[in-house]
Every structure is written in structure tokens, then in C-alpha cells.
Specification:
The protein is α/β, with parallel strands linked by helices. Helix 6 packs parallel to helix 9. The chain is globular.
């Protein structure tokens, strides 16, 4: 090979290496990012909005439950409502679903041109159909008369699901599993797997063997919790019978600790904190669990990759 040929070959090699470096630099991070949009319960609080969790994986942005203020928290997180790929519901208690019309319709107003896709337990499909009826006037005016918004963006595609793989796209797998929320049946938890990492979201549940089964090998478990003394203090007029019934639908800190001890996550996080007071959760949990533990806060985010890294919202 002459000198000109060698020089040409070298130039091609340099261009190939540059192209490879550019491709690697643009490749999406192979990790999960979980943001607690709302860590509260039905009690209205300004520091803990209604239950809702955002999971970002690759190009997917998945919302789990849509309680009071979920869209405001997405706005604070600078996530475009139109970019939400799917909504998953753990159960149909009002505090987990009251934010749906806001996410659905404001997402449409803010640019969503495709249907809002919703998965949830039995009754979810019917609930979404009734919401479409409830907001029929608004949709008609904005779609057909005034703003002429794209029709498909106001469509809802809802499915009622049972235990099993509910969703797979872009390397993301969402698996639903049954949990025990007392008389509230059905109720689901979810496991999200992506690029060798995973997070489990308990939904509302008391101690659940099935949740432990689906949590094995998960990097992070985000679990609900109830603290009875604080709950009693914040509801002095509530009857003892009703109080005991509500507590029995949820998980005590000692019980949650036992779940974490058996599942062995890299990190356990409390969310859906009933009644919202977090000061009395760590000590009783430590009776049964000694591993990494955080009490969730609104807008706390968790990066799940080779390491699990927590970012707290700036005041």
C-alpha cells in the first residue's frame, strides 16, 4: 500500500473513532430514576401531596397513582405532562386518583397529541369512562368549538389488569402484583425493571407475603406506612373502631421492617405516610430492620444504577 493509501486509511479510522465516541456520549443512561411526587395520605397537607410516584427509564416516563397535586409536582420536576407515557393505578381509593382529570386534561392543553393510557385494577376502565363522560362538555368545547385541540389527545385508553406483566416498552417492564389492603380488593403493587435494575412500589397494603415474593432482588422498595399514635393524635374525633379499622389496612413500621429484612433491598423508602408525621418511623423500624432506610419526602428523587443515590428537593 502506498503512502496516500495509508493516510486515507488513517483518516477513516479517526472518523470512525469520532463517530463511536459521539454515539457513546449520546447513549441514554442505563438507570432508573424515581421521584416521589406525593408522599402523603388523604389528609390535606402542603408538605405532603397525595400519593404519586414518577419512574423514568430510558425514554419512558411512568406515573404510578395520581393523587392531589401530582401535576404541580410534575411541573416542579420540569416534566412535561405530554411526555408521560402511561399511568398505573394501585387501587381506586380517592386519594390515589383525584389528580387524574388534571393530568389528563392539562396534559392535553399542554401539548399531548396521543391518548392517555391507563392501567389499574378491576374498575379502572369503568372509572375512566365515567371521567370522560363527566368532562364531555370541556372536551367538546376545546376540541370542536374553541381551541380546536387535537382530538386524539383527549382520548383515554384504559385497561383493567390483574397480577402479571402489564407493560413492556423500550426495555422497561412493569409487573403488577396483588397486595393486601384489607377489605379494599383488588389492590396492586408494581415492580419496574430496566437495564438490570428495579424498583418495587407497594401501593396501599398491610403486611404482604406476595409483596415480599415480588420484591426479591429489587434495588429499591418504596413502601407505605402507618404510625398509629400520630394517626390517633391527628384525628381525635374519630371513633376507636374506625381508627383500628384504618390502621389494620396499612403496615406498621415494625412490620415494614420485617418485609425489608426479608427482601433485602439496597434501599428501603417510606412513602404514603399515614398520617404524614415522619418523626416516629425510624426507631420502630429498627426493631426488625438494620439496612439502608429513608423516610420519603415530596420531590425526593432516587437514582438506581450501579449505586443508589438520593437527591432531596431544595427548599
Amino acid at each position: 500500500m502506498n503512502i496516500a493509501g495509508i493516510e486515507d486509511l488513517c483518516r477513516k479510522a479517526v472518523l470512525l473513532l469520532a463517530a463511536s465516541a459521539t454515539f457513546v456520549g449520546l447513549a441514554p443512561a442505563q438507570e432508573l430514576q424515581v421521584t416521589l411526587l406525593g408522599t402523603g395520605s388523604p389528609q390535606p397537607r402542603m408538605d405532603r401531596f397525595g400519593p404519586s410516584i414518577l419512574v423514568e427509564a430510558g425514554s419512558e416516563k411512568l406515573v404510578f397513582d395520581c393523587g392531589r397535586g401530582a401535576t404541580q409536582r410534575l411541573e416542579q420536576r420540569k416534566v412535561a405532562f405530554a411526555d408521560v407515557s402511561a399511568l398505573f393505578l394501585t387501587h381506586l381509593h380517592s386519594d390515589h386518583v383525584v389528580g387524574i382529570p388534571d393530568l389528563w386534561l392539562t396534559g392535553w392543553l399542554r401539548g399531548r397529541k396521543v391518548a392517555l393510557r391507563v392501567w389499574g385494577p378491576a374498575g379502572a376502565k369503568e372509572m375512566m369512562a365515567h371521567l370522560e363522560q363527566a368532562y364531555e362538555f370541556d372536551v367538546h368545547i376545546r376540541r370542536d368549538v374553541d381551541e380546536k385541540l387535537p382530538a386524539q389527545g383527549a382520548v383515554v385508553q384504559a385497561q383493567s389488569i390483574e397480577q402479571g406483566v402489564a407493560y413492556e416498552n423500550g426495555g422497561v417492564k412493569v409487573t403488577a402484583f396483588a397486595v393486601d389492603h384489607g377489605l379494599v380488593k383488588p389492590a396492586l403493587g408494581y415492580r419496574v425493571d430496566f437495564a438490570g435494575h428495579s424498583v418495587v412500589l407497594s401501593g396501599d397494603t398491610r403486611y404482604s407475603e406476595n409483596l415480599i415474593t415480588f420484591s426479591k432482588g429489587a434495588d429499591v422498595i418504596i413502601h407505605e406506612v402507618v404510625e398509629p399514635d400520630s394517626f390517633l393524635a391527628s384525628n381525635p374525633a374519630m371513633s376507636s373502631q374506625r381508627m383500628q379499622g384504618i390502621v389494620a389496612h396499612h403496615t406498621l413500621p415494625e412490620q415494614a421492617g420485617a418485609i425489608f429484612a426479608r427482601a433485602k433491598p439496597k434501599l428501603a423508602v417510606y412513602s404514603h405516610i399515614v398520617p404524614g408525621n415522619a418523626s416516629n418511623l425510624i426507631e420502630p423500624t429498627r426493631k426488625t430492620y438494620s439496612g439502608p432506610l429513608e423516610v420519603g419526602e415530596d420531590l425526593m428523587s432516587i437514582e438506581i444504577g450501579e449505586k443508589v443515590v438520593i437527591h432531596r428537593a431544595q427548599p
